[in-house]
Amino acid sequence: NIIKPIKLINQKETQKIFNINVIYFINIISKLNYGNLFLKNSSVLCVSSIITKKHSVGMSLYSSTKASLNDFIQSAALEFSKDLIRFNSINLGHISLGMGLYSTKFLSKNELNDFEKKYPLGFGKSKNLNDLIIFLLSDKSSWITGVNIDLDGGYKL
Q1: Inter-residue contact 90 to 132 (CB < 8 Å)
Q2: Contact at 8 Å (CB) between 115 and 94?
Q3: Nearest to 146 by CA among 65, 68, 52, 75
Q4: pLDDT (tens digit, 9 = 90+) per residue, 82-116?
Q5: Strand, coil or helix: what is 39?
Q6: In contact, 54 and 154? CB cutoff 8 Å
């Protein structure tokens, strides 16, 4: 993640974060499709970010990549629906795991407490994400496609 105001963003950073968050994913989907490697009734899922719904200063580049990913998911859902292949994404809020832990390790205890107060249900746990992933990849979600599901503990409220 690159956190900085727009006036300080450069082309190299822009290309890097778009490659990681958008272009590589699109290329994988394209190659799987070209090779006829998708099975009927399958499900494709990506993890996006709640930042696409509640913006923050310094997060414009990251937010733009995740919004692009969400739009791609919706277009792909339409294109692949004839083969019953579902595409969805999760707009994830702060989870005390991986990137979430890294992004808060530089905060003081007071800053961390203030940040967590923005989440009415507190920070998420890996179980919250895992349960939704399992559901979206299962047959129980066979009639859900093209959606960007917010999983944010009420953050955007």
Answers
A1: yes
A2: yes
A3: 75
A4: 999 999 999 999 987 666 555 667 778 898 888 89
A5: coil
A6: no
Length of the chain: 157
Short-list 78, 65, 85, CA closest to 25? 65
Question: pLDDT tens, 47-78?
Answer: 999 999 988 888 899 999 999 999 999 999 99
- Sequence-ordered list of residues with C-beta below 8 angstroms from that of 37, at least 6 positions apart, any chain: none
DSSP 3-state of 141: helix
Integer CA distances (angstroms), 51 to 22, 65, 72, 132, 143, in order: 15, 10, 17, 19, 26
Strand order in the sheet with 86-92: 43-49, 86-92, 148-151
Greatest distance between any 2 Cα atoms in the chain: 52
